[in-house]
Amino acid sequence: MVGFELGSVPFNSDGWGPPDSSVAVPNQISNAPFAPFSRSDKLGRIADWTRSLSNRPGSNSKQNPTDSAFDFSGDDSFATLAADEDSSFRLVDTAAKSHHHGQHRPKFNPRWRFNPHHNRSQLPQRRDEEVEAKKREQEKERARRDRLYNLNRSGTNAGQRRESAVFKSSVDIQPEWNMLDQIPFSTFSKLSFSVPEPEDLLICGGLEFYDRSYDRITPKNERRLERFKNKNFFKITTTDDPVIRRLANEDKATVFATDTILSTLMCAPRSVYSWDIVVQRVGNKLFFDKRDGSQLDLLSVHETSQEPLPDVKDDINSAYSLSVEAAYINQNFSQQVLIRDGKKLSYDEPNPFATEGEEVASVGYRYRRWKLDDDTFLVARCEVQSVVELNNQRSFLTLNALNEFDPKYSGVDWRQKLETQRGAVLATELKNNANKLAKWTSQALLANADMMKLGYVSRVHPRDHFNHVILAVVGYKPKDFAAQINLNTSNMWGIVKSIVDLCMKLNEGKYVLVKDPTKPQVRIYEVPPDAFENDYVEEPLPEDEQVQPPTEEAQGSEANAAANEVEEKEVSTEAA
Q1: Which of 93, 362, 415 is nearest to 210 (CA)?
Q2: What is the pLDDT of residue 534?
Q3: Residues 138, 196: Cα–Cα separation, whole Å
Q4: In this structure, is the dihedral angle defined by the CA atoms of residues 359, 361, 362 and 363, taken in order, positive or negative?
Q5: Measured between alpha carbons, how far is 427 from 509 in angstroms, rounded to an integer?
Q6: Is the N or C terminus of the chain more exposed, i.e. has fewer CB atoms within 10 Å?
Q7: What letter would DSSP give residue 18?
Q8: Which one, of 503, 513, 506, lies nearest residue 294 by Cα?
Q9: Given 3-state DSSP classes, what are the helix, strand and coil percentages for the chain, each rounded to the nearest 5?
Q10: Where in this protein does the record put region Disordered (predicted)?
Q11: For the residues 236-251, what does the mean pLDDT come to?
């Protein structure tokens, strides 16, 4: 029997691996070349001592004979070894690469996948700029494909749904945050709480009267949506509201919020995209806040739809672009449908956020108080946008606009269907925008509005996201509409009550409620007291962005002048 003799293994007292002294490593091996390989290569043999490359035709005769044992670069036998498998890898680097990772992501509508016209999301630019922009887009696209390719290769992306802004958390969860609880939405559906009628503590602001001629608009006599650049719209969070601070100092209640925040909680089970609400426990009080530039200031579009929106953030139909567009449409719509003759219904106090002399959008803030239990009262700032006078009776209105961006997505063309099949249009909207419509309804109920007016606003052309037309305006009584969309008031209050009770048990400090970006649940994190203080808002939305295309500076002033001229003409023709 042949014995196996183990050579001497030197002990390295200073660290890992063989010691530096070359005793352990025979010299002739230390200079042996290492065959370079890429990760996609199949590793075959490491060395082959039985062959010599020096006598191969065309080989380099000066080659070091020891190299040949390691060098398989010119060896056909090695290539055939892995040829079958390798062919599948080579395919990846051809133009078909994009489809290669298509297996890992849901099939997009063929219109959207790598469409060569994708780069036209901006309005026409000058020639040389277009060329530059195209180059940049191609670079971006290449980088994106490489990134996805690597992701898919490493398998990390295999189980994920589309790699999209939609499925990212609305706030970056920091490692030092402490998760206290997660509540699945399924527990919300069973909650119920009947809240007694609230009382009005204060009404601020001023309301303009609704122009009833808008009720008669049809797609055949549509009206252009105007722009209100110099009107100020306020999206002030709870703790920045001077009236709420005053009411808190006077101990008028223990819980404070705004209608936007409450409606987000009330309709949470319908939400798909991530959102977050900051909770502050101070003394015996509880404040629900939103961050600056929060998701809650924008309006989701097609949130509950089955059709995925394009993934590229810059696309005019991406979730982000649409939410910005919808926010602007809503603001402009709410100001356009007023009589605008200077008549205003003024209240106890002027708009608490306005500085003197600035033009303020028509809005009435109702500070209302609800009794949640013997010790807990909730005060919320609720908004109504307009008022209408009928037979000496005043009715408060909320004004909101649904927007159509491309009939191909919803499958319903508003211009054709609104007159004959309004029910079908609304049903489709309820399917695709369940959360947004429920939030608007709950806000109307909170503000005790007598009517909610829903405008149907569409793009002038599916690829033009700057110009819109109003195709119809329909009024609903909030209570009836809530019943129609299956929104249960006692369930809404049940959710608010349970979250208030939960937060009241927390120690003093700052917390954040975050809707999980992919699962139907909400999480509560404990955050440091200075979190969100100097929040860097990723993309502020200047009103100008809505007015001209983003390349406005580059276009030069003459283009702007022309645009303004056209705009003035449009306005004057409308007036005429």
Answers
A1: 362
A2: 63
A3: 60
A4: negative
A5: 43
A6: N
A7: S
A8: 513
A9: 40, 20, 40
A10: 51-71, 95-163, 538-576
A11: 91
Query: Which candidate, 267, 316, 323, places its Cα nearest to that of 295?
Result: 323
Measure the CA–CA gap between 263 and 255, rounded to whole angstroms: 15
Residues 86-105: tens digit of each pLDDT: 544 544 444 544 444 444 54
- 135-160 pLDDT, tens digit per residue, is 777 777 777 777 666 665 544 433 33
Mean pLDDT is lowest, of 183-197, 430-444, 493-507, 536-550, for: 536-550
Structure confidence at residue 10 (pLDDT): 77
Integer Cα distance of 72 and 35 in angstroms: 8
Percent of the chain with pLDDT over 70: 69
Residue 548 identity: Q
Q: Which residues contact 234 (CB under 8 A, 6 or more apart)?
A: 351, 353, 354, 363
**Tokens 């109307």 belong to residue:** 444
CB 272 within 8 A of CB 398: no
Question: Phi/psi at 185 (nearest 5 deg)?
Answer: -60, -25
Neighbours of 494 (CB within 10 A): 20
137-144 — which CB contacts under 8 Å span 24+ positions? Answer: 141/114
The amino acid present at 262, given as its one-letter code, is: L
Give the model's pLDDT for residue 550: 42
Overall residue count recorded for the chain in this entry: 576
pLDDT at 532 > cutoff 60? yes
In order of 295, 387, 444, the CA distances from 398 in angstroms are 21, 9, 6
Mean pLDDT of the chain: 77
Instruction: Give the CB-side neighbour count of residue 80, counting CA atoms within 13 A.
Output: 3
Q: Count of H helices and E strands in the chain? A: 16, 15
Q: Positive or negative, the Cα torsion across 283, 200, 384, 487?
A: positive
Placement of tokens 């001229």 in the chain: 565
Per-residue pLDDT at 516 exceeds 60: yes
Gap between the Cα atoms of 401 and 424, Å rounded: 17
pLDDT score of 261 more than 70:
yes
CA-to-CA distance for 256 and 237, rounded, in angstroms?
Answer: 10
Contact present, 207 and 386 (Cβ < 8 Å): yes
More confident residue, 334 or 554: 334
Q: Is the dihedral of CA 153, 157, 162, 164 positive or negative?
A: negative
